[in-house]
Amino acid sequence: MIRRLSEFGVGLLFGLGLIVSGMTNPAKVIGFLNLSGNWDPSLAFVMGGAILVGVFAFAFARHRAKDFFGDAIQWPSSTAIDPRLVGGALLFGVGWGLAGFCPGPALVSMAAGVPKALAFVAAMLIGMFVFEKIERRR
Amino acid sequence: MTIDWASFTPWTALAGGLMLGLASALFILINGRILGISGIVGGLLRPRAGDTSWRLSFVLGLFVAPLLYGVSTGLPQARVEASWVTVILAGVLVGLGTRIGSGCTSGHGVCGLSRLSPRSLIATLTFMGAGFVTVYVLRQLGVVS
After folding, report:
1. Number of C-beta neighbours around residue B107 at 10 A
2. Between vectors from CA A17 to CA B79 and to CA B107, what angle results, nearest 5°?
3. Which domain holds residue B130?
4. ipTM
5. Is B145 domain-assigned?
6. pLDDT tens digit at each of 145 positions of chain B
């Protein structure tokens, strides 16, 4: 129970961070991706701030075998740089540039009652569902 | 390229970024997994016993964030300039792409780069590059100013 509450709290902190940073405003995200035009560099500071904390935190976590609740930390096992990684990232990047939403901000904006965020999330879930169907067939 | 100084908000961006980094750090330490939104949500579509409640707890936290922020200071505006059709096409691409490529801005961008993962660096450079090119094309078509 305490663990579920902690995960809820981290979700809340992450959601608040997305709002404070400006990531939940698609126009601002497009402003960052508009590198060749009138560029708003703000989101580079979002990434910079997150990685500044993250580098130290993950260096600390790396030396631990277990999390605070005694379960093994599950590090990603794949190190492959393959067409699947690059192809997936390409599709994601095109979608990100088209609407200005990535998954986290879209979920937060949907909960805030932004109608197009609801449409985006529904479509995103369809995309993820299609992936599951294809994966299961393989 | 020109800098859009009128829209530039370095301090709130940095503050928000620190919060995202802190959340990612806490998540690996309390949950033992990488905080990646697409993976957390995608896993809900592949339900396994004992693997659902932590995902829902986290997502519920995300959902409560705008409500809490809204009652305290009022939410900042979210301007979506893309049309409905574009938004839906974008959603499908993001859903498919993040699952095929095993991550999005949080899992690859924040956690992966913080872990100094070469795989995540390639993914991040790729989706950012694709985003830059997409917006460039939209600007050539007159959709983005």
Report:
1. 26
2. 95
3. 10-140
4. 0.96
5. no
6. 899 999 999 999 999 999 999 999 999 999 999 999 999 999 999 989 889 999 999 999 999 999 999 888 888 888 999 999 999 999 999 999 999 999 999 999 999 999 999 999 999 999 999 999 999 999 999 888 7
